[in-house]
């Protein structure tokens, strides 16, 4: 598994501009982009997922070219086999838990008839122990339950790479460590490569085999992080 990123993107508004110029490469199963708000972490994740188009660069995962500005390659999001967990989970409020998860199978399968009976939907509800809330709606769920539903929806389509945008920011402090452990155990069990963005050193300690530090749209020399556990800091200019 190798993720190779080289991308540039200019964002211009009436009162400000931002230049994203990022390059890194890793074959670690758990990668982290660490940095403050506004560093460009989410833009990088969105470019990998195909939600925004870089001005220039190249994105390659496992030898498969997802984007190459010079070659004119830009795979649409649905062909990248990349799952994206949004910071606010982006669950559909008018759909039940089972319907939200089934929406991850929407390509040629939506709308699902009785999604709670679909074998893949059932598999992931069982995996995250949420089968008892299959008929519930997002507003009826706790923060931890919403995260599990969002993860199940992300994984139901069998992605090759999981992207996590500040996955614990919406959770109470008391729940965060439990969900970090649950996510780490899930990654180890599935052996699914995972790229997490965060500003929290505790997330780095739990989920970072390799850490890339971002500031002002660029990868910078690693800073000293106050974390527990072994973390490898890696930089490629």
Please provide a written account of the structure.
Helix content is 27%, strand content 27%. The chain has helices spanning 41-49, 97-103, 119-127, 143-155, 173-190, 201-207, and strands spanning 3-12, 17-26, 30-34, 56-61, 64-68, 73-74, 82-85, 161-165, 194-198, 210-215, 218-220, 232-233. It folds into two domains: 1-81 and 160-236, Rossmann fold (3-Layer(aba) Sandwich), CATH 3.40.50.300; 86-158, no CATH class. The model is unreliable at 223-237 (pLDDT under 50). Helix 2 packs parallel to helix 4 (143-155) and helix 5 runs parallel beside helix 6. The strands form two sheets. Strands 3, 7, 8, 9, 10, 11 and 12 form a seven-stranded mixed beta sheet that branches. Strands 2-1-4-5-6 form a five-stranded antiparallel beta sheet, with helices on one face. 37% of the residues are buried. The protein has six helices and twelve strands. By secondary structure, it is an alpha/beta fold. It is globular. The two termini are 20 Å apart.
